[in-house]
Each structure stands twice: as structure tokens, then as C-alpha cells.
Specification:
The chain is an alpha/beta fold and about 475 residues long. It has helices at about 5-20, 25-35, 40-45, 55-60, 70, 110-125, 145-160, 175-185, 195-205, 225-235, 240, 260-270, 270-280, 330-340, 370-375, 380-385, 420-430, 435-440, and strands at about 90-95, 100-105, 135, 165, 190-195, 210-215, 240-250, 250-255, 285-290, 295-300, 305-310, 315-325, 350-355, 360-365, 365-370, 385-395, 400-410, 450. The protein is globular, with a radius of gyration of 23 Å.
Length: about 475
């Protein structure tokens, strides 16, 4: 490790353990990245931009957006890192794209310390700084982003002095249910960390839950879901005993639910008119708060999110393509007060996230892409039965269990076997989508296939541009 890198790590540790920030403004970050990251220097030069001309926030907001296609996949991996050195990072994480081809994201210890602040806010809300806590990491382990990263962040909290012990069975339900009876009674409380459908499956399979809290990520869930699972765990108050994280493979955890954001969301859950006024949609998004000195958010005119942040591969005005928006603390306070909701506000801004509903469906934390399903419908024999159009969505049953549903348009005058189509889709999802294969439990991998006649007005209206996913 070179001297500059060692100094950065030491500074990060000192700031974290002292409870202070070593962050600067997003303009400072931009100039640091422009001067130290070869790929970004080339990207700016290709757009005719001299970094010295970027001196105000208006200048910053005119910078071109970056994304996987125009930036991350265009340059060699080391050039995305500071000083063009991949060995300056401590590890890599992997996410799976629509083709199953992995996207590699370099990580560093200082990244983990940034993210640990988000976990610290959540765990402190659980009184984990005072109560002995067993943290059970139920995210998939391996190269996948969630499991190892979460484990490291919670261990950093333990190193800081929190009475936390970590066990990481990953998304192995049998192992989770084996270790919990052995360990839980030794602690004041248990925190399960994982994707919502998987956590619910674990909760429904267990019997004796001991003062259990939840940390969730990856998917939007309803307040009815929160209440149902909270009741089955015997929670005193789901507002204070649960928290969802807004995280991405690209940059780790970007924000987290707080009791304030959850209370606002629950207030809006029964007032779709107010939700539409605030979010532009009566659907409830995930609503989190974030630290603008660590992650800087913006919104495009089309209502998708951008963020800038320091990582192993720093990102400036990165277009994550999640549908959502940003609300300042002041604006949120005024909106709530105007509509009869009062609470004590802090200065943390809010970001809301619907997810990529036009492009993917999230299921057990895995991004399910229409391209994967298409291949299943293109198999010999099946392709003769169907037009190739379908609608992909997740649906919840009466017990709030989530299922992957594919509504398929039959070819004119044809009939088909829904079970055969479901098995073909599952086969191709397992082959093409490594997140699906590793995140979704085997017993939940077979989609529910619903067959509709050609031109069905609810799903396949004639003369209208087709959408392959639906919220």
C-alpha cells in the first residue's frame, strides 16, 4: 500500500471512530476524481471539459452524466480507480447484468467506513450501542454485493465498541434456523438483515422469535407487509424495529430508513392523494434519508436519480436509472405540517425510490430483466404458441408472500401449457441471470405463468407501445 493510500485509510478510521466526517463538498470530490482517476480525465476530455472551469454548482450540474455503458464498460477496470491502480482497492464486488455478464465494482476499506455510518444510524436506533445484539446476515454471500459488505460494516460497528456479534449464514434458510436457537438467547436482541421476501420466508418458518429487529434492502414493500411481519415477530413497534436500506451494487448503501421517514411513509400509506402530490404517483416508494456529504443526489428531468460519491471507483453524476426524487428536510417538514403530520425533523434530506419499474422487476433482491424471460419464450415449440409479448411483475398473495408472475400473450388461435412455459422461463433465468440463481430460493424460482388471448385489452392492447414490466 503506498503512502497516500495508507494515509487515506488511517484518516478514514480516525474519522469513523471519532464520530467525525472526513468528507468534503461534491465540488471537492469532482476535482479530486478529475485529477486522480484516468478514466474520468479521458471522459471529460472527450466532452471538451476542462476541470478548472468547474467552479460553481451550476457548472457541476452541467457536467455530462455517466453510466455503465458510456463510462464503466468503456475503460479498463484499473483506469476507473484512483491513480489507475486496481491494487489500491481492497476487494471487488460483482453484480449481474441482463445478459448474466458480471459487472465488477472495486471496493476499499474507506468505502466500508462511509457505508458503516448508515448502518450505525440504524443500529443505534435499535439501541445496539447499549444492548447486546446478534446480527444475522441473511444476504447472499460470495462475490455478490450484499453479504460480505454488510458483514464488514457491522463488524466495524463492533470494532467501534458496539456490543454486536455477527453470524453470517447467508441466504441458507436451514442454516439460519439452525444457528438462531443456539445463539439468540445469549443476546438482548437479534437483528436479521436480508431481502424482504427471503426474510419473511425465514420468519414464517421459525417459531420462537427473541426480540427481533429487521434490516431490509433491495425491494419496495408495503406498510401492510411491515405490519404483518412485525406482528409475527412480536415487535413492539415496526417503526422503530425495522429499517430498509437503499443500496446499489454500484456504490453500496446510499441511504436508510429512519423512524421519521417510516412514520411519514405510514402517514401517506392511507392518503394516496398526498402521496401523489409529494411523489408524483399514488404508489408508495421506499423513502429514506441520506448524508449529502457522503452521497450527493440529483434528479433528472425524466424523474430518475443521479448520485455522486467516493468509492473504489468514484462516480460523478452517475445515472443509476432508478425512478425517484429528492426532497429537502425543509420542504418535507413544510409538506407534512401543511397536511396535518407533525414530528421532530433533523437536517438530513430525503430520497424516494420506486425502482426501475420500466426496465426490471426486483425479486428476492435479484434484478429480473425482460431479456431473460424472452429467451424462455423463444425455445423450440414454445415460440409457436406465443407472440413473444409478456408482462413481468411481482405479486403478493393473501399472506404477503411475493411471487414472480409472467402474463404471456398467446399467438392467434393457439393454446399452451402454462407449466411448460414456466419451466422454460425458470431454466433460462437460472442460465442467464446469476443473481436470480443465487438470490432466489429454489422453491420460489418457478414463476407463475398466466396465459391471455391475443390483444387482451388489459395486458396487450392493440396499437399501444407494449411495456414488459408492471408495478
Amino acid at each position: 500500500m503506498d503512502n497516500n493510500r495508507a494515509a487515506q485509510v488511517i484518516q478514514g478510521f480516525e474519522a469513523f471512530f471519532a464520530g467525525t466526517r472526513a468528507d468534503g463538498s461534491v465540488l471537492d470530490l469532482f476535482h479530486q476524481v478529475a485529477s486522480t482517476v484516468p478514466a474520468y480525465r479521458k471522459f471529460l476530455a472527450e466532452h471538451g471539459i476542462d476541470p478548472a472551469d468547474v467552479v460553481t454548482m451550476d457548472d457541476f450540474r452541467r457536467l455530462p452524466l455517466i453510466d455503465k455503458e458510456n463510462y464503466h464498460r468503456r475503460y479498463p477496470l484499473p483506469e476507473l480507480c484512483r491513480d489507475g491502480r486496481l491494487d489500491g482497492c481492497d476487494m471487488v464486488a460483482v453484480s449481474s447484468g441482463s445478459s448474466g455478464h458480471p459487472t465488477v465494482w472495486p471496493r476499499s476499506l474507506t468505502d466500508e467506513l462511509h457505508i458503516t455510518r448508515r448502518f450505525e444510524q440504524v443500529f443505534r436506533g435499535f439501541d445496539a450501542h447499549e444492548r447486546s445484539t446478534l446480527a444475522v446476515v441473511c444476504f447472499p454471500l460470495g462475490t455478490w454485493v450484499g453479504g460480505l459488505f454488510t458483514t464488514a460494516c457491522v463488524q466495524h460497528l463492533a470494532a467501534k465498541g458496539y456490543p454486536i456479534t455477527v453470524v453470517a449464514p447467508g441466504n441458507n434458510k436451514a442454516e439460519i434456523l439452525r444457528v438462531l436457537p443456539e445463539l439468540a438467547h445469549h443476546f438482548d436482541q437479534v437483528v436479521l438483515l436480508g431481502y424482504p421476501p427471503f426474510i419473511k420466508d425465514v420468519v414464517d418458518s421459525g417459531t420462537d422469535w427473541h426480540s427481533t429487529k429487521l434490516v431490509l434492502a433491495g425491494e419496495v414493500f408495503s406498510e401492510e407487509w411491515r405490519d404483518l411481519v412485525g406482528t409475527r415477530l412480536g415487535m413492539a413497534d415496526p417503526v422503530t424495529d425495522t429499517a430498509s436500506l437503499y443500496g446499489t451494487a454500484d456504490a453500496g448503501v446510499l441511504g436508510n430508513e429512519t423512524p421519521l421517514s417510516i412514520s411519514i411513509r405510514r402517514f401517506l400509506a392511507t392518503r394516496p392523494d398526498l402521496a401523489r402530490e409529494l411523489f408524483g404517483d399514488s404508489r408508495l416508494p421506499t423513502l429514506v434519508q441520506y448524508d449529502p456529504t457522503s452521497r450527493y443526489f440529483e434528479t433528472t428531468p425524466k424523474g430518475t436519480l443521479l448520485f455522486s460519491g467516493d468509492n473504489g471507483a468514484p462516480l460523478i453524476r452517475y445515472h443509476i436509472a432508478d425512478n425517484g426524487g429528492v426532497v429537502s428536510s425543509v420542504d418535507m417538514r413544510e409538506f407534512c405540517a401543511r397536511n396535518g403530520f407533525t414530528a421532530e425533523f433533523d437536517d438530513q434530506p430525503f430520497v424516494y425510490v420506486f425502482g426501475r419499474s420500466l426496465f426490471t422487476v426486483s425479486f428476492f433482491g435479484a434484478n429480473i430483466y425482460p431479456e431473460n424471460v424472452t429467451v424462455g419464450l423463444e425455445q423450440p415449440g414454445i415460440s409457436d404458441w406465443v407472440t413473444g409479448k409478456f408482462v413481468l411483475r411481482t405479486v403478493a398473495d393473501d399472506d404477503e408472500n411475493t411471487h414472480l408472475q409472467v402474463t404471456v400473450e398467446l399467438a392467434p388461435g393457439k393454446t399452451a401449457d402454462a407449466q411448460v412455459i414456466a419451466e422454460a422461463i425458470r431454466t433460462q433465468l437460472l442460465r442467464l441471470n446469476s443473481e436470480f440463481a443465487h438470490y432466489v430460493p429454489a422453491e420460489r424460482q418457478l414463476p407463475r405463468v398466466v396465459l391471455r388471448e391475443t390483444g387482451d385489452p388489459d395486458y396487450f392492447p392493440v396499437g399501444v407501445k407494449h411495456r414488459y414490466t408492471r408495478a
